[in-house]
Amino acid sequence: MIVVVDERSLVTSGYSAWFAREGITTTGFSPNDFGEWVATVQEQDIMAVEAFLIGECANRSQFPHKIRERCSAPVIAVNDTQSLENTLELFQAGVDDVVRKPMHVREILARINAIRRRYGNGSSGTQIGPIKIFSDGRDPQVNGVDFSLPRRERRILEYLIANRGRRLNKAQIFNAIYGIFDSEVEESVVESHISKLRKKLREQLGYDPIDSKRFLGYCINLD
């Protein structure tokens, strides 16, 4: 899930539509709502965020520090106009990158991956055991062969692998895949997606790599 902050609701809704075409869920905030949310959100919710996009809004130079107090997800500022002074101010405030409109969402995803790669938390492809995942919309590979999955199952697999070594509960997975404020879908849909994913992985690998424990959640074992 990507969080978008902008004072214009048309902008946040536009990002939501663009990222949805790439299979990425977004949650949009106005600046005032975001400031309150980032300070009070539960850890499991903010840990589901893969990146923050900070658009045009007052006092946005304050947001990177507030984000860093809660998580280490990439922070990218989006400028409507080119301004060296503004760009330098944003980098000084702690953003990881600054981009100028217009840009394709795939470029934003590539920049997010580049930031993760710099910090050792991502690459053009992440190989764990027999599975290689990508974070740019491509299907994963199993033993070097493309492994086609529906969008939601692919995103769950990517999220499990990105958080390998941690046990993720149903709420965390739901928030990462559907967004924090999606009230039209029940959390129980996660169980259905994971059940289908496990079956496909079992058929491909010969074993079930997803370990589940009641009340504790899911983790993936591929090493």
Automatic annotation (TrEMBL):
CDD domains reported in the protein's UniProt record: trans_reg_C (cd00383)
Key word Transmembrane helix present: no
Domain of life of the organism encoding this protein: Bacteria
Keywords of this entry: DNA-binding, Transcription, Transcription regulation
Entry keyword Plastid: no
DNA bind region: 123-222
Segments forming domain Response regulatory: 1-116
Domain (OmpR/PhoB-type) ranges: 123-222
Any Pfam family matching the protein: Trans_reg_C
GO MF term set: DNA binding
Protein name: DNA-binding response OmpR family regulator
Natural source organism: Phyllobacterium ifriqiyense
Lineage per the UniProt record: Bacteria, Pseudomonadati, Pseudomonadota, Alphaproteobacteria, Hyphomicrobiales
